[in-house]
TrEMBL record:
This is DUF7224 domain-containing protein. The chain crosses the membrane at residues 12-29, 41-62, 82-108, 120-140, 147-173, 193-212, 224-244. Residues 266-398 form the DUF7224 domain. It comes from Streptomyces pratensis (strain ATCC 33331 / IAF-45CD). InterPro entries: DUF7224.
């Protein structure tokens, strides 16, 4: 059959006229969380996989029902149902590929250029989800009326594409439907290999079951082998997915970082190397400002922004002495943690001291804390250091109440 005839009589071309523009528009509205790091860029394409797989599954069901109604397999028995399926589902598979490429291109143009290439594993796994829905649509459409089969796959594809992500009790389901790495990745993260493997294994389980069901002619072996293959592959997928819970990322290999300097040691990822000279200069300025009030940054500092600016560098280095997590005493059930109040004030004081502009800090931090930090900065250097040391004790020890009042340290400094 000619390609023009396939496109004119099938649903793929007509669906593309609606699907592709909608996906381009949707992707353009959802680029805020994307950073200039290829795994992050690539993972954003998984957001739209639910739409694509639903549309392609419905198109495959429509084609299967149409061919069954027309008796194609009876009219051309020598070709076999599998070869007929490959021919007629080809345009639907191409639709799925185009529908993935279009929003990916939108996302790529919305972020700054970055070295490297798109993550092929994420893109391939996402496309495997689309192929699984096409195979399932072919199976369902051949057993239902034309409109009912397409509607069933459209609803099922949409629900399966987005519903698991909302389930708190069964978080591992997202690693089967292709949404496991949607929230990937920070600059220090890679997509979870287990998550990707679980998705592709489950998708191949569906494809294999449908292929066996279409290729085998023996009435006993066909359902037995199809069900056995699907069960075994699904078991493997569950073994990979269940232990992950919500986690769809893994730590990036730290050997890729380049660390230079001391106190603090500045560690940069490959995406940040083009700004190494500027980052080192800004880091030295911030370190000197902290040293003037007796504060030592963390021994090693890295940055989450692929292209950090002066404010970002100052903020990261200045606040690096603060712990990333609350102390164990604060994690006990019913425990009170007065260090929260101190942490908020110290963060503001460290930021301003390290050179972060007040206008920038005010966009993401309480104004009361900024005002208190400014009062502390007006104190003599010795008093500022005493305020910092005293209140850092409450950050690390739940039994120590903070003393944030500047007056307490003014008296000490003048006595």
């Amino acid at each position: 059959m000619r390609i023009s005839t396939l496109l004119r009589s099938g649903p793929a071309a007509w669906a593309a006229l609606v699907l592709v523009p909608v996906l381009v528009w949707f992707s353009a509205q959802n680029t805020e969380s994307t950073i200039a790091y290829w795994p992050s860029i690539s993972s954003q394409t998984t957001i739209v996989v639910g739409f694509i797989s639903a549309a392609c599954g419905a198109g495959a069901a429509w084609e299967a029902a149409r061919l069954r109604q027309g008796g194609i397999t009876v009219l051309a028995p020598a070709r076999g149902s599998l070869s007929v399926a490959v021919l007629h589902l080809g345009p639907v598979a191409v639709l799925g590929l185009i529908a993935m490429i279009a929003p990916f291109a939108v996302i790529v143009t919305s972020v700054a250029s970055t070295p490297g290439l798109p993550n092929p594993a994420i893109l391939a796994v996402s496309y495997s989800v689309v192929l699984a829905h096409i195979a399932l649509g072919w199976f369902v459409g051949a057993r239902m009326p034309k409109l009912l089969g397409a509607a069933t796959m459209l609803i099922f594809g949409y629900l399966w594409g987005f519903w698991p992500a909302a389930l708190g009790g069964l978080p591992w389901l997202r690693h089967l439907n292709g949404q496991g790495v949607t929230e990937c990745c920070g600059l220090d993260q890679d997509p979870s290999i287990r998550s990707l493997a679980a998705t592709v294994t489950f998708s191949l389980a569906i494809v294999a079951a449908v292929v066996l069901s279409s290729a085998l002619r023996h009435r006993l072996w066909r359902p037995l082998l199809s069900l056995t293959g699907f069960t075994v592959a699904t078991t493997v997928a569950l073994t990979l997915a269940v232990p992950l819970d919500f986690q769809g990322t893994q730590a990036r290999d730290t050997a890729l970082r380049t660390c230079t300097g001391q106190n603090p040691q500045i560690c940069l990822w490959p995406e940040q190397n083009t700004r190494r000279a500027d980052i080192s200069h800004w880091a030295e300025e911030t370190t000197a400002q902290l040293s003037a009030v007796g504060v030592t940054p963390a021994r090693q500092v890295e940055f989450g922004d692929p292209q950090p600016d002066k404010t970002n560098v100052a903020s990261n280095i200045a606040t690096s002495p603060l712990p990333n997590e609350a102390p164990p005493c604060a994690l006990r059930q019913g425990a009170a943690y007065p260090g929260d109040e101190a942490m908020i004030a110290i963060y503001a004081w460290l930021s301003l001291t390290g050179g972060v502009p007040k206008s920038d800090l005010a966009q993401r931090w309480p104004l009361e804390a900024i005002s208190l930090a400014e009062q502390i900065r007006a104190l003599p250097t010795q008093a500022q250091h005493a305020w910092y040391e005293r209140n850092m004790r409450s950050v690390h020890d739940c039994a120590v109440l903070p003393d944030l009042d500047p007056a307490s340290y003014t008296k000490a400094a003048t006595s």
